């Protein structure tokens, strides 16, 4: 785990200046209020534009685009399936993606993957929208503009010399180098980042998720005395008590507990105990 | 005050009414018949392509099989167009400096795909599947005409719904033995099995082929 900075935990604790610095768009958003009349106008406009879209004569036939080299195993018109993984908050679940000549059309669970057993959740199903999201990253950006991987490598090679030289008044190389990632559970990526941190002792690695699970990680650390991940087997339980947890619904890695939980119905040790789950939020 | 109309007025009036009726009827007929015309269906029009590819030269002259380039026709709904690499199998050895092939060489060199214009089209609401037609004994020629006689490729048949349904109502006369499916100029000979025999061989006639959902899914 990278160190967690001493930043204010909530927006309420921040001073006005800190707020403006963290959320540059906040001031203009708050000053531009959306009253009822204006909102109805915008809604009407949206409705009218929907009608205009119906006047579109349709996509013109732009002809056949034939490949330069045929992709191996791809037959035009026949769907292909490939196995990959969907990672959410560091929990990977195996999925099978059906595609037509490289364009994904369906996501399903991978029956051969231990964290899926053929099941998916809503987030994995919604991936199909993510694939076609116009905002989806397709490559590296430099100051908001697309750039190429070789350019990125060249720029990082150039920065390497600067980063290797310790700054004035410091003994650590790599000060000023920050790495920002989501939760990383990939052993390869983790190892690579650790090698970077070893080469640049002054560098800092920040892990951040929109809905983070650092409290879960800390709690497990307190309970077991070392960083740990729990693999839940609810078949062993007669009663599940979930405190602020969506174990069987939407928590990362919830698929397997959800699948196996009904298996233990009617098999609990005490016949008078009703097999049930209590959730306190 | 004299008579307001001369004696010719009746004739003029009748003629005008007859002409108007004729115009209205012909416009209606034309409006109805126009989509069926070869002109509107672009039958026999050579379409401009990035390379003036000649089926006549490649099929009649060199004897290439349809499936050499349209490789997925037996497996997939789409017959598919060949990748640039297929063209360059030969054209990296012969006609290497031909000006007409510059677009093909550029495509391979710059790794940019070639865009061919559609010659034979069906509307988007028609789900045509090449593989099932080939598997059930319909020759390429039945819809695409004799491409071996086309220096530039053009549409040979109207491909109206009438054209499709005519065959779906009675497929027998348009079937051919499996070994002749890719022949470009084939005529039934004395040894050719008759329509009922071919229907039986391809297991046709069990399902009503004019069901809407066969083509409109």
Q: Could you characterize the architecture of this molecule?
A:
The complex is a heterodimer of chains A (281) and B (217). Chain A is an alpha/beta fold and 281 residues long. Among the domains of chain A are: 80-131, N-terminal domain of TfIIb; 170-228, no CATH class; 231-280, no CATH class. Chain A has a three-stranded antiparallel sheet with strand order 2-3-4. Helix content of chain A is 31%, strand content 18%. Mean pLDDT of chain A is 83; it is low at 1-5. Chain B has 217 residues and is mostly helical. Chain B folds into three domains: 1-36; 55-81 and 118-215, no CATH class; 82-115, no CATH class. Helix content of chain B is 39%, strand content 1%. Chain B is built from ten helices and one strand. Chain B has helices spanning 9-33, 55-61, 66-69, 84-91, 102-110, 130-135, 140-144, 161-169, 195-201, 212-215, and one strand spanning 114-116. In chain B, helix 4 (84-91) crosses helix 5 (102-110). Chain B starts with 8 loop residues before the first helix and ends with a helix. The A-B interface holds A 61-70, 75-78 and B 72, 75-78, 80-86, 107-108, 111-118, 121. Strand 1 (64-66) of chain A pairs antiparallel with strand 1 (114-116) of chain B. Chain B: InterPro entries: Cyt_c7-like (IPR029467), Multihaem_cyt_sf (IPR036280). Chain B: Keywords: Membrane, Transmembrane, Transmembrane helix. Chain B: The chain crosses the membrane at residues 12-34. Chain B: Residues 126-216 form the Cytochrome c7-like domain. Chain B: This is Class III cytochrome C family protein.
């Amino acid at each position: 785990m990278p160190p967690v900075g001493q930043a204010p935990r909530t927006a309420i604790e921040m001073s006005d200046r800190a707020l403006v610095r963290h959320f540059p768009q906040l001031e203009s958003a708050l000053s531009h209020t959306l009253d009822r009349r204006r909102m109805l106008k915008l809604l009407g406009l949206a409705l009218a534009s929907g009608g205009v879209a119906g006047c579109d004569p349709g996509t013109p036939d732009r002809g056949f685009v034939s490949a330069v080299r045929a992709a191996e195993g791809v037959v035009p018109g026949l769907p292909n399936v490939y196995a990959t993984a969907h990672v959410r908050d560091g929990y990977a679940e195996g999925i099978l993606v059906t595609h037509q000549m490289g364009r994904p059309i369906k996501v399903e669970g991978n029956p051969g993957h231990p964290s899926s057993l053929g099941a998916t959740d809503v987030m994995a199903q919604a991936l199909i929208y993510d694939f076609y999201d116009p905002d989806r990253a397709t490559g590296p950006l430099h100051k908001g503009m697309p750039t190429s991987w070789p350019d990125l490598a060249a720029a990082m090679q150039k920065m390497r010399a600067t980063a290797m030289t310790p700054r004035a008044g410091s003994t650590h190389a790599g000060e000023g180098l920050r790495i920002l990632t989501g939760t990383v559970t990939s052993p390869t990526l983790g190892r690579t980042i650790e090698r970077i941190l070893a080469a640049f002792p002054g560098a800092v690695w920040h892990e951040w998720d929109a809905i983070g699970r650092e409290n879960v990680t800390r709690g497990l650390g307190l309970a077991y005395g070392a960083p740990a991940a729990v693999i839940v087997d609810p078949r062993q339980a007669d009663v599940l008590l979930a405190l602020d947890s969506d174990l069987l619904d939407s928590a990362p890695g919830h698929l397997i507990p959800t699948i196996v939980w009904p298996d233990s119905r009617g098999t609990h040790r005490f016949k008078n105990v009703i097999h049930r789950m209590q959730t306190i939020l | 005050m004299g008579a307001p109309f001369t004696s010719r007025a009746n004739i003029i009036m009748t003629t005008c009414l007859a002409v108007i009726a004729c115009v209205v009827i012909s416009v209606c007929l034309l409006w109805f018949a126009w989509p069926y015309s070869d002109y509107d269906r672009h039958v026999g029009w050579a379409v401009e392509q990035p390379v003036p590819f000649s089926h006549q030269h490649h099929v009649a002259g060199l004897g290439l099989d349809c499936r050499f380039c349209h490789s997925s026709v037996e497996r997939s709904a789409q017959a598919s167009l060949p990748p640039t690499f297929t063209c360059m199998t030969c054209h990296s050895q012969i006609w290497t400096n031909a000006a007409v092939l510059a677009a093909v060489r550029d495509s391979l060199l710059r790794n940019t795909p070639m865009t061919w214009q559609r010659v034979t089209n069906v509307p988007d609401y028609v789900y045509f599947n090449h593989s099932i037609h080939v598997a059930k004994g319909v020759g390429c020629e039945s819809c695409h005409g004799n491409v071996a006689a086309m220096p530039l490729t053009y549409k040979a048949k109207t491909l109206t719904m009438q054209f499709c349904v005519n065959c779906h109502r009675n497929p027998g006369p348009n079937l051919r033995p499996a070994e002749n499916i890719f022949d470009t100029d084939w005529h039934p000979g004395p040894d050719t099995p008759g329509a009922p025999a071919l229907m039986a061989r391809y297991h046709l006639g069990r399902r009503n082929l004019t069901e809407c959902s066969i083509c409109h899914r």
